[in-house]
Amino acid sequence: APAQIGVTGLAVMGRNLARNLARHGFTVALHNRTHARTESLVAEHGDEGTFVPSERLEDFVASLERPRAIIVMVKAGGPTDAVVDELVPLLDEGDIVIDCGNAHFADTRRREQALSEHGLHFVGAGVSGGEVGALEGPSIMPGGSAQSYEKLGPIFESIAAQVDGTPCCVHVGPDGAGHFVKMVHNGIEYADMQLIAEAYDLLRSGLGAAPAQIADTFREWNSGDLESFLIEITADVLAHTDAATGEAFVDVVLDQAEQKGTGRWTVQNALELGVPITGIAEATFARSLSGHAEQRAAAAQAFATPAEEGFADDPQAFTDDVRKALYASKVVAYAQGFDHIAAGSDEYGWDVDPGAMATIWRGGCIIRAKFLDRIREAYDDQPDLPTLLVAPYFAAAVQDGVDSWRRVVAAAARAGIPTPAFSSSLAYFDALRRPRLPAALIQGLRDNFGAHTYRRVDRDGTFHTEWSQDLVEHEA
Ligand code: NDP
C-alpha cells in the first residue's frame, strides 16, 4: 500500500517523528540524503510500524498516496530550500510539503508563496519538545492553508502530546503563523529559563544555600502554581553531582549561555512590530552578556563585591518572596509573549486564537506548565483581553506577589546580584499600571530639539511650541 505520509531528513528529529508516526499506525515513507541513516532507522526500529524506505527522492515521492504529505526535517535555512527545490518538480497539484524544522517565519511565508504558485501547499509547522517530544508526543504548531490541515490535522493530532484528552496541536493560521508562534514560544522559553536562573542565583548568593538544597526548594515549588517542566528539570539539574569531581554539576559547567537564534528572532521581530517584550529581550541579552568573558574578567577585577552581600535574616520568608516574584515575573513574560502573538497575527492577517495556543502548549513542549490552563481560561472568558495581567486570576496573583517582588528586586540591587528579568518585569508592570509616564517629557524634548510636535491632554490636535520665539504654541 502507498505510504500515508513521508519524512525526508532522518537525523534525530526526523527519525523520531517518523517512528512516532509509525507507532500510531501510519505507513511512513522514508528518505534521507545519506541513505545509511534511512537504513539504520529501518534496521533498528523497523518493527515499530510500517516503513517504506527509498534511496532516491523520486522513489520516495512515488511511494506516497495522493495528495502527498511530505515532512521535511532537515537543517533549517539553505538545506530546507535545497530540499524543497528538489521536491517541487516531482510533486503534483494539491500535494503538501511540511517544514517541521526551526525555520524563520519570514522564510516560511516566502516558501508558501512560491509553492502556492505551483498549486502546492507549503506548511511551516513548529515542533517543540526536542527529540523526546518528537518520539513520544510533541507540541505541534502547523501554519499553512486550512485545506492542508484537513489532511494533516488527523495525523498530527494523533502523534502530538495529549493533555486531558486534548491534542497539543491545532491549525494556528495561514502561511507563517505556525513558525511565528513557535518562535514566540521559544522566546518565552528564554524568559522562563532566565527567571529560573535568577531565582537560583538569589537563593544561592543571597541566602548561601547549596545547590542540592535549592533543588529541594524547586521541587517543592513544582507542587504549586509554578508547576512546569522547566521547574521540574531545574530541580534535577541542581541535584545532579558531577561524576568526575564530586562537585555540584552546576558548579563545573562554564557559565556562558549559548543560543541557536530563536530568542534573537523573537526580539528582532518584536522591535519591528513595536511590542515591548522586555523579559524576553533581557533574557536574550543576558545570554549574550554571559559570553563576554573578557569584559567580565576585567570588570570583576576592577570592581569589588558590594559590602551588603547576603540577606539571610529570614531565609524562609525570603525564599517565599522569591517564589512569588518568580511567578509574577513569569506572568509578565507570558503576557508579553501573548501580546507579541496578537501583534503578529494583526500584522500578517493570521487570526491566531491565543487561548488555543495556551492549550497546545500544555503538553509536549518545553514551556509546558500548569498555569497555561489559566491562560486559556482567561482568553475564553474575555477574548479581547487587553493584557493577560488584568485577567482576574493573574491580576490577583500579581497583586498577591507584588510586595514580595519589590523586596526581592530591592534586595538583589543592594547585594549586587543581577536580576535583569525580575527587575525589568517589575518595571514593565509598574509602567503599565501608572496613570502617567514621563513619556510626556520625552515628547517635550522631541518637540524642543526636532519640532516633532506633541498632543495635549486637554485638547485634540497636534501642537508645536516655538521654543526660540518666547515659547509660542500653535497647532502643527
Ligand atoms: P539537523 O538540524 O542536524 O540536520 C541534519 C539533517 O539535515 C540530516 O538529515 C541531513 O542529511 C539533512 N541535511 C542537511 N543539509 C542537507 C541538504 N543540503 N540536503 C539534504 N539534506 C540535508 O537535524 P535535527 O534532527 O537536529 O533537526 C532537524 C530540524 O528540526 C532542524 O531544522 C532543527 O532546527 C529542528 N528542530 C530541532 C530540535 C532539536 O531538539 N534538535 C527541536 C525542534 C526543532 P544527511 O544525513 O545526509 O547529512
Automatic annotation (TrEMBL):
It catalyses: 6-phospho-D-gluconate + NADP(+) = D-ribulose 5-phosphate + CO2 + NADPH. One of its GO terms (molecular function) is phosphogluconate dehydrogenase (decarboxylating) activity. It holds the Pfam family NAD_binding_2. The keyword Transmembrane helix does not apply. SMART domains: 6PGD. Pathway: Carbohydrate degradation; pentose phosphate pathway; D-ribulose 5-phosphate from D-glucose 6-phosphate (oxidative stage): step 3/3. PROSITE patterns: 6PGD. Residues 178-468 form the 6-phosphogluconate dehydrogenase C-terminal domain. Catalyzes the oxidative decarboxylation of 6-phosphogluconate to ribulose 5-phosphate and CO(2), with concomitant reduction of NADP to NADPH. PANTHER family: 6-PHOSPHOGLUCONATE DEHYDROGENASE. This is 6-phosphogluconate dehydrogenase, decarboxylating. It comes from Angustibacter luteus. The gene is gndA.
